[in-house]
Structure formats: structure tokens, C-alpha cells
Write a structure and sequence with these properties.
Length: about 90
């Protein structure tokens, strides 16, 4: 399954690079009152890198949060078992 994920990532990155190389015309971008004229290829590359960074960070955060909540809930279940059965430590 790991190879399938890797192949999808490589194909998507290749498609993004091909699109960027074919799109060198200058576009005007405006955001929050600022305007900039940049090549479309540069805009696509920046968007791709920002998306990859934030997507990876969000995925790692969600995994860590899920694992932490599982450990916390496992501890609660074990403590309830000990309390109900009268066992100590």
C-alpha cells in the first residue's frame, strides 16, 4: 500500500511540475490589499509547497491527538476495572 501512496504523490507532483513549466505568463495576484505580478508557475509552486506543508502538519497533529486520546481512554477503562473489582494497583 505504501508503494501506491508513493506513486500517487509522484504522479501529482509530476503533473504540477509539468503545469508549472507550461505556464510562464505573468498574472496579477491580490490579497488583503496587496497586489503582485508573478509568473503563474511560481504561484503554483508556492501553493503546492504551502499545501504540502500544512497538510502534513495537520495529518501529524490529528494522528498525535488520536493516539493521545486512546491512551487516556485506555487508562480510564483500566482504573474503572480496578475500582469495580476491588483490586489495587
Amino acid at each position: 500500500m505504501r508503494w501506491i501512496y508513493l506513486a500517487v504523490i509522484i504522479l501529482f507532483a509530476a503533473a504540477t511540475i509539468i503545469f508549472a513549466l507550461q505556464s510562464f505568463e505573468i498574472v496579477t495576484m491580490s490579497f488583503l490589499g496587496f497586489a503582485a505580478r508573478v509568473p503563474l508557475a511560481l504561484l503554483v509552486a508556492i501553493g503546492y509547497l504551502l499545501g504540502a506543508a500544512t497538510g502534513g502538519s495537520l495529518f501529524a497533529l490529528l494522528c498525535r491527538s488520536y493516539e493521545g486520546s486512546r491512551r487516556k481512554n485506555d487508562g480510564l477503562v483500566l482504573n474503572r476495572y480496578r475500582f469495580l473489582s476491588g483490586r489495587r494497583g
